[in-house]
Design brief:
806 residues, alpha/beta, Rossmann fold, 30 helices
Length: 806
């Protein structure tokens, strides 16, 4: 019998020894992460109570934290999640101030969302560490019972403003860390506690939180003594008086007086959401005296929120270790505070405090994410940091949106030249063409671009050198003999550009009159019926009657009757310019001789004045009369993705009119080449045309205005740089905006630039532009989904000191 029992016991012991406690029951600690909150100058702390309410909502009863999990072989396991908490930490040094939020990992997305809702422009990022609390430590706790409230005023930044004042007495190496530990608690017993306190308050009893101190007992003794004396007088009044008891109304009023002086914050606290709150101040310094003074200065800062209750400080024993991730900090009082009271503690500084206390870790400008559509491309805009994430930004790649104009606004030294160089280099790598019209100083912009693009793709037109002179001719288009109408069409296209060119040559700023345009247009349309003719030939047709007669005679003899109907009014206009000498018979009065002997200069005086202005400049006169054999074919160059550098050094071309004429001429060639390419392809490859300070060529501005909205269809992208928008004509400003252009406002850009685009740049504010770091840009980029607004750090220069391509 005994042997059987022992055998059973042995089996039971073996079985029980094989089952471990952790196999069927586990206590699971919460995992925490730390978020750093980087303040922005526009921050407001009106709604930080929302964060506290989110923390309070984490409370769960034990049975809600207990889970039963099924395992293999029909076994099960119980898991009890330990309660969770959250903490807010302020770390202050002499030259900085950082803010951290320690939260349960499983709520990370929720708290990031709430933080973004409360502090819309702050950056929230996860970090690996928080300050350690190893120094002289103090705790703050209520002086009176928990139902009595502190002051609450969401419109101020108290006590944070007072706390940051400690920076004035801190020295380098000193540290102050403040821990607010928020512990979610059940709300069931709160109202009972509140009523008990109100009952003691109305009865005149002390409501100090610390019940077992000498001060409490002394206060309790004197209150009891006074109540005893009062009771004695009541008895004597009953015995010796008239026998009438004190009216109940008087007693009620006496009780009410004790409660009537309570603040609204205390009254509201009865129905408020309550959360357990621990407050720890930690001070570290090489100087122990200063370490103590710093801690006391911060502790005293909380007096500003005294009301029905106030916070008093107590030193924590040095041996007490503080672990930020502990649910409840040992040896630290838990205060039952309303979520609105805690609004006083979860605060980050705004503009005034950031500037006043020189906080370095801050978001200087609004951070916006770069849309996915602009995170890939061939033309980089630089990198953007948004909420701690670094994102690369590019100009759009969609054909139509990529071809829209780009406006670069920057002061001198703002990085504009480097940016244009980077754009040109990236475009060249993407097999896109570039045309740079450089007429500023010594053409440093063109030279910098020459260094970074493929040398094989460079076509350099230095107009200060004779070998680079270009005839003032539109050699890109010629009549190929297909039809008479094509001949007229080609001539008319060249005539349009010629009118723009002559219009640019004026000293009074006035455009050509209607009569002048009639004669000039007639000459151009007739002269350009012949290939290899130039603007110089058009001028000769006007002021040399022999040449004019040749052109008119050829037209009348070689053009079909139907074609002459088209040309007749132009030929008649040219005939009107002839100075005719007639000889008549004295007797019969018959004309016996009629001969053209000259030109009626009075009819074309305005045109000739402009031609004279052109010929006053040696470069223009030379180019006006030369043949087009050496001319660059812009259509061919744009098709091949070449980079054309048109250089007009300022010391050689310092006359405003000359600049205007040349820029207008080359702009006309570019527009003409663009239209011709449109006839070759449905979607011509992109060519970027760069203008720096286009206001120096007002006639070219007018040409661009006329065609800007159409250029995107032909693959030509206009890129204009200026110091400020008002440098452009109102018409060009409006046309750029209406065409859907993109804008880049580089650091230092004038505030008037922001005002021009204020509505489009919202929610960015002027302060964001003014606080841009060097070589950063506020971008307004048009793409498929509208306008994207974000800030980027511009790409670094891509050329090395020796000029080699990086």
């Amino acid at each position: 019998m005994k042997g059987g029992i022992s055998l059973i016991l042995d089996v039971f012991k073996k079985k029980s020894s094989s089952i471990k406690l952790e196999d069927w029951f586990e206590l699971r600690k919460p995992k925490y992460i730390t978020l750093q909150v980087i303040p922005h100058s526009s921050n407001r702390n009106y709604d930080t109570e929302l964060l506290i309410q989110t923390m309070a909502a984490m409370y769960r009863l034990p049975y809600q934290r207990l889970k039963k999990e099924m395992k293999e072989h029909k076994n099960f396991k119980f898991t009890l999640d330990l309660p969770e908490k959250a903490s807010f930490i302020i770390a202050i040094t002499k030259d900085d101030c950082r803010f951290y939020l320690t939260i349960p990992k499983r709520y990370s997305n929720l708290f990031i969302e709430k933080c973004s809702e409360v502090w819309k422009r702050a950056t929230i990022k996860e970090v690996d560490s928080v300050p350690n609390f190893e120094g002289e430590k103090y705790e703050l706790h209520y002086k009176k019972e928990d139902p009595l409230s502190l002051k609450v005023n969401k419109k101020t930044n108290e006590p944070l403003s007072n706390i940051l004042g400690v920076k004035d007495i801190m020295e380098k190496g000193d540290e102050i860390d403040i821990l607010y530990n928020f512990i979610p608690i059940g709300q069931g017993r709160w109202r009972g506690m509140y009523k008990e306190t109100m009952k003691r308050l109305s009865s005149g009893m002390p409501v100090d939180k610390e019940k077992f101190t000498p001060a409490f007992f002394i206060k309790f003794f004197f209150i009891s003594l006074i109540k005893g004396i009062d009771f004695t007088f009541d008895i004597l009044n009953d015995v010796l008086g008239d026998g009438k008891p004190r009216p109940t109304e008087e007693v009620a009023i006496t009780k009410l007086d004790a409660l009537s002086n309570l603040s609204k914050n205390t009254t509201k606290k009865e129905n408020a959401t309550i959360i357990g709150t621990q407050i720890v101040i930690n001070s570290k310094s090489a100087d122990k005296s200063r370490q103590h003074n710093n801690a006391i200065a911060v502790a005293e800062s909380y007096k500003v929120i005294n009301e029905d209750n106030n916070l008093i400080y107590r030193k924590i024993p040095e041996k007490s270790k503080i672990n930020v991730q502990d649910h409840t900090i040992r040896n630290v009082t838990v205060n039952k505070m309303s979520t609105s009271e805690c609004n006083n503690f979860v605060q980050i500084p705004g503009r005034e405090l950031l500037d006043k206390h020189k906080v370095n870790t801050k978001v200087e400008v609004l951070e916006s994410p770069i849309p996915e559509d602009l995170r890939k491309g061939s033309i980089p805009l630089g990198e953007s940091t948004c909420k701690g994430e670094v994102q690369a930004g590019y100009l759009p790649t969609d054909y139509n949106f990529a071809n829209l104009a780009l406006m670069l606004l920057s002061p001198q030294g703002g990085g504009k030249t480097t940016l244009i160089g980077n754009i040109a280099r990236s475009a060249n790598k993407a097999k896109e063409g570039n045309i740079v019209l450089d007429y500023i100083k010594n053409c440093e912009l063109a030279d910098s671009i020459k260094k970074v693009v493929n040398p094989k793709d460079v076509i350099e037109i230095d107009l200060s050198k004779e070998e680079n002179f270009q005839a003032l001719s539109f050699n890109e288009i010629n009549y190929t003999g297909k039809s008479e109408f094509e001949m007229f069409e080609v001539a008319n296209m060249k005539a349009e550009q010629t009118l723009a060119f002559i219009d640019a040559a004026n000293g009074d700023g006035l455009p050509l009159t209607g009569k002048m345009r009639r004669y000039l247009s007639a000459a151009a349309n007739v002269v350009y019926l012949h290939n290899n003719t130039s603007i110089g030939d058009v001028i000769k047709c006007l002021n040399k009657y022999q040449r004019r007669i040749e052109y008119v005679t050829w037209a009348r003899e070689n053009i079909s009757p139907q074609g002459l109907e088209y040309l007749e009014d132009m030929l008649d206009a040219l005939d009107e310019l002839n100075e005719i000498e007639k000889e008549t018979d004295k007797k019969t009065k018959e004309v016996i001789r009629c001969e053209v002997v000259g030109t009626k200069d009075s009819k074309i005086e305005g045109i000739l004045d402009r031609v004279n202005l052109i010929q006053e400049n040696i470069y223009l006169k030379y180019m006006l009369n030369m043949k087009a054999d050496n001319n660059v074919d812009f259509v061919k160059a744009m098709e091949e993705g070449k980079t054309i550098l048109i250089k007009m050094p300022e010391h050689k071309f310092n006359n405003t009119m000359v600049k205007n004429v040349l820029i207008t001429f080359f702009t006309s060639k570019i527009i003409l080449a663009t239209k011709l390419r449109g006839a070759l392809h449905e979607k011509p490859s992109r060519c970027n045309v760069f203008y720096d300070e286009i206001y120096q060529a007002p006639t070219a501005e007018g040409i661009i205005c006329n065609v800007l909205s159409q250029l995107r269809k032909f693959g030509t992208k206009i890129i204009i740089s200026a110091h400020y928008m008002d440098q452009l004509s109102n018409r060009l400003k409006n046309e750029i905006k209406a065409s859907g252009a993109s804008y880049m406002l580089l650091q230092g850009a004038d505030k008037k630039n922001f005002d021009e685009l204020k509505e489009e740049l919202m929610p960015y504010e002027l302060e964001d532009l003014l606080k841009l770091k060097q070589f950063h840009s506020l971008n307004l980029i048009r793409y498929q989904k509208g306008y994207a607004k974000f800030i980027t750090k511009l790409p670094k220069p891509i050329w090395e000191e020796k000029g080699k391509v990086a």
